[in-house]
Amino acid sequence: MGNQHGKLTLNGEVYDVNKVEEIILQLKSQVDEYKKQNEEHVRQLEESKEQLESKIAEVTKLHEELDKVKSVLQQKVMRGKPDILSTVQEEVILAKQKTKKDAVSGESLVLRTATIDLKHHEKDLSSKNLIKTALKENDFLKNLDKNQMHAIVSCMKEKSYKQGEYIIKENEPGDDFFVSAM
After folding, report:
1. 0.70 exceeded by the pTM?
2. What is the DSSP string of 79-105?
3. pLDDT tens-place string over residues 159-174
4. Does the keyword Repeat apply (predicted)?
């Protein structure tokens, strides 16, 4: 490699030094621009990754809520309660049909008040906290007031099951509330 009067010889070819310096500056500028673009792409990729993780968490939560709703609807069906959608459809059909009867009569409702004695069961603080947490996470029970929550917690009893034993069995009434812990 030689340098004679502003000329540069490289691999047997002669280049003008000023032209080579100009090309080097252009290449450095391009490299800097590519670095900036790369940093921006990395930032956008991280942002997209965070958004994706957030959406996945949201979808997971919605699936959990959907499973809870399906479970409740399944319990209603198993108890012989009518399907909500079919009931609404029947009401729409009946409303469209012209009937001759304009009045409805029925027996008046007499409310009976009954006193129910609640049986309280002793439990340690961790068991109480576990039950409270389960109640607060349940969509149907999370809005209970303090007294209702306390009553449920104090009336629940501990019951152990063997590994592999079924806790909830088909065709049983389903009147019990379970909190599972391992």
Report:
1. no
2. TTPPPHHHHHHHHHHHHHS--S-----
3. 888 888 888 888 888 7
4. yes
Instruction: Count CA atoms closer than 13 A to 125's CA, side-chain side.
Output: 0
Q: Give the residue ranges of the chain where pLDDT is below 50.
A: 1-2, 98-101
**Predicted pLDDT at 92:** 53
What's the CA gap between 23 and 17, in Å, rounded? Answer: 10
